[in-house]
Amino acid sequence: MKRLVLICLLASLLTGMAACTNSSPSSGVTGTGKTKLVVFEADSLMVPFSQVKKEFEQANPDIQVEMQAHGSIQVIRQVTELGQDVDVVAVADYSLIPMLMYQTKMPDGKPYASWDIMPATNQLVLAYTSKSKYASELNAGNWYQIIARPDVRFGFADPRMDAVGYRNLMALKLAESYYHTGNIMDNTIGKYFSMPITSNDINGTSTIHIPELLEPTDPHMVLRGAHMELLALLQSGDIDYTIDYKSTVIQDGLQYLELPPEINLSDANLAQNYGKVVVKADYQRFKTVNPVFQGLPIIYGMTIANNSKNPGAAEKFIQFVLSAEGQSIFQNANQPELVPPRCDNINALPASLKPLFR
Q1: Phi-psi category of residue 13: left, alpha or beta, with phi > 0 → left and psi -120 to 50 → alpha
Q2: What band does 15 get if pLDDT is binned at 50, 70 and 90?
């Protein structure tokens, strides 16, 4: 119930942020004289990061952490496009940081980020409840048929904002090869919009195209800006199924069906197979970057924005996340850690973080 309240509050926050893009808390110093550290996180990190915040502040009483949760793409857009003052950026897809922050320049010509730490992993599962239609029939061999039934309400996170959205598309396209059945992605998601989500296959690679306008045309499709909103709808019975991260589904106490490793984006040994699916946005959402999302194993990314107002406090926060205490919090939240954590550009790390990767 506590998480459901958090989800509802953050859903309202997302709506408010869309209408007023300058309302983010600014980094700096609080009215009580504490250093203010602003952390924008992927919404699938809400549970572990809320505990990280509590224990980090206890260990660092001179620092006050302020957090906001969004879909991963929205997390980065708040920094690079909307000008929010953010110190730490944590997203559910590590590839978003080099794609959208390295390539986007600040007013002084420097990139918004220069390094990318990879602390955690995850996998996709099919989430449902005992109230979901045809739940009693559901099994590993027919799940993709059930979620495509017209009278089933399927929850889909907007792939223009949330990484789990484009990962839904990847998983359903991979399912077509795994089950030797065509049109799974189209029959579940693609055809239910006024401008359909389409795909084409060239030389063994499937490219899925997201149109600029995503407007559902049928009750089967329930679209939301962030997947945390869909979990609330699943709990209330307003949708029947959604594909989401295993960690968040367990945290919410929902039922779930494990998907095969060939589909669930969890196995590094299957990276080449995952890479056969690409999701492309057929519009310019970012000023300087037109994102193309490659099928990859699910690995989270974390960095400090190069325009951070409190980089010292941000470094301490990341040290805590990667510490034994931080990793214990992740484990208790059923959020799988990446052991050992990785970094793509150790030489660019602040001096205080380099020893963690030597």
Answers
A1: alpha
A2: very low
Alpha-carbon span 134 to 19, nearest angstrom: 39
Q: What is the CATH number of domain 124-281?
A: 3.40.190.10
Distance (Å, whole) CA 274 – CA 296 = 6
Torsion of CA 163, 241, 155, 298, to 10 degrees: 0
Give me the phi and psi of 120, to 5 degrees please. Answer: -150, 165
The structure tokens listed for 119 are 């602390």
Q: Residue 126's beta-bridge partner residues?
A: 243, 257
Q: Provide the pLDDT confidence category of residue 284 given band limits of 50, 70 and 90.
A: low
Output the CA–CA distances (angstroms, integers) from residue 161 to 29, 177, 184, 265, 349, in the order listed: 30, 27, 23, 19, 28
User: What is residue 19's predicted lDDT score, i.e. its pLDDT?
Assistant: 33
C-alpha distance across the termini of the chain, in Å? 42
- Domain 2-121+299-357: which topology? D-Maltodextrin-Binding Protein; domain 2 (3.40.190)
Closest among 45, 43, 242, 218 to 129, alpha carbons compared: 242
Alpha carbon of residue 135 to chain centroid: 26
Instruction: List the alpha helices (DSSP H) in 180-284.
Output: 184-188, 227-236, 246-251, 261-264, 271-274
Let me know: does 224 contact 252? Beta carbons within 8 Å. no
pLDDT (mean) for 178-205: 96
Q: Report yes or no: 214 and 196 within 8 Å, Cβ to Cβ.
A: no
CA angle (269, 161, 50) in 5-degree steps: 80
pTM assigned to the model: 0.90
- Partners of 89 in the beta sheet? 40, 303
According to CATH, where is 3.40.190.10 located in the chain? 2-121+299-357, 124-281
What number of residues does the chain have?
A: 358
